[in-house]
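Run log, item B.
One chain of 725 residues. Sequence copied directly from the ordering sheet:
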Amino acid sequence: MRHLMMISVSTAALFAAACTPTTPSADQTADTSTTTTETTETVMSDNALLAEWTGPYGGTPDFENASLDDLAAAIREGMALNLAEIDAITGNPEPATFENTILAMERAGEPLNRVFTYWGIWSSNNSTEEFRDIRNELTPELSAFSSQITQNEALFSRIRAVYEGDEMASLRPDQQRLVWLTYNSFARNGATLEGAAAERYAAISQELAQLYNTFSNNLLHDEDTYVTYISADQLSGLPESVVQAAANAAADRGREGEYAITNTRSSMDPFLTFSDERDLRETVWRTYYSRGNNGDEFDNNQAILDILRLRDERVELLGYDNYAEWRLEDRMAQTPQRAMDLMEGVWAAAVARIHEEVADMQALADSEGANITIEPWDYRYYAEKVRAARYDLDSDEVKQYLQLDNLRQAMFYVAGELFGFDFRELPAGEVTVWNPAQRVFEVTDRATGSNVGLWYLDPYARPGKQSGAWANSLRGHTTINGETNVLATNNSNFVEPSPGQPVLVSWDDATTFFHEFGHALHALSSNVDYPTLNGGVRDFTEFQSQLLERWLLTPEVVNNYLVNVDGEPMPDELIARIRAANNFNQGFSTGEYLASALMDMVYHTTDPAEIGDVQAFERETLEGLGMPDEIVMRHRSTQFGHVFEGEGYAAGYYGYMWADVLTADAAEAFEEAGSYYDPETSSRLVETLFAPRNSIDPAEAYRAFRGRDADVQALMRDRGFPVTE
């Protein structure tokens, strides 16, 4: 699950939004607010991508008239306009103040930010070779533009004057945090460097931006290009829903009558879970886990080495020992060692559980006379068999009660009960969309009837769309030029059904759907005044979305929305079996994630000169950790987009587990209250953990909700691992 990072156009993160491909898990929401300044609008051309958004709901992007032909010119003009605004700030003869420097920066760059809205959609939802060529062309220019801002001595001098000045004491707490975030962003991104060091820092940034593009383009190529086609006599074991999805995927590629297993998780995972064809399972598994590692022109191994080398050199210029030390300094974990301590404490329990799971699967395979040793391409298949035998739980049986439209309605119900939000689908054409299958919903405050914003849903997989699921914000909440409403998006890769047929999803996919909606609710509930404060601390921002997953299994959702195509609710005995199996296969899910998170941290605490061959380093590191042979990293190195398509999760993939600790502990707060819909606990959740976004320190925010720090043992209890008091 990858997400776009909420940014302020007034900082170096502007370049990250433009040049870093959208990510899952990505996963980071890009704030592209459309508030503008009079100066900007009076000099702006008629380029459609720069234009103010018009129409209802505070104005919305004009996707209908957005053309790639205008993109390069719009980016270049937007950069020029933004730099002129920066010149106006630095040229102000008055002493630097919060108003004329920090707030002026918050108001700057809005036309360019609007261009980045379209850029983000072309990058993640509708990528084409033409767009990728434009992105490659503009990457050096965008990097140079970013450096012009972050290394603007006059600008940083004014920021520092506010940060160190007497005015700070009189500012509100959220304003003080804004000043600190702005100062810290510049200081940590090269603003303190001079001369040759500053020049080298800027050059490294350009090289990295190009490498991120290369990594992303290579991965997308392998996801789009490598498809396993099978015939009707190779469908044994596959549920009808998987068969139909594979038939549709083949037809979309001009292979009518065949069945396509595409190189995405949403296609790979169910095939490995249900297919009786072991040789084909191995083929699909190897194809998926070889993305970016095929020894051709789209191979990502050298890109990884170059990225790690440049990251290390860049932070060395700033005085840090390694990239992870720099990255975690302003995160909740604070140091690489604290993150490693958490992960290693859970890793041992996960590995022990994996060995138990493999033993159970091997015993079952032996009892069937399979005459095999469990391999990675067998894990999902035999885990499903063990699940069915132990809990009488068939994943395809569960899927019959997980209709996508009903799940969406369930999410709306939860949002109404916890947040007081109501959703109404807009008629087609009321606002423009970037794909005909997309749906848009108006979000209103139940108490006041006022518009909160819009929620865009892009549910289906298609060529050119990045894999996985993610959330994004086209516009975040601010009040700096009048209150703005929020434009939030959720994006998935469900297989589009035949006309009139429901979309049936797995339990894991349903959980992910709720997870990503949590990110949207985080954006929609924002009450911050300043765009930068719509961002977040990486190891905290996953918490809100992970917590929302818990509402999928609440009785109110199960009893009213988990129904089959005949309208029959999920039987109580099936619900009981699902609950009983709640921690089933927890070794696999925890282990494959932690292997990636640990590998990420090792990469960024190791001297790049010692890595050498990426594949050998990955293999040897995992062997040293005691990685079971029967599983692999959730994201092997050459396909680890979270870490190598940009910097949002670099040395930060551990953040999902850090957030898991918060999630397990917060869930216990609702359990202690007696209901996941307890009004007082729900209100406190929204007021302290969702609405403030990044306007207060996340550790303080959590203590305001829970009355104490999170208890790491809550995570162990939640996963059914041994608890150490």
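Observations after the first pass:
- The CA atoms of residues 203 and 377 lie 43 Å apart.
- The chain has a mean pLDDT of 91.
Flagged for discussion on Thursday.
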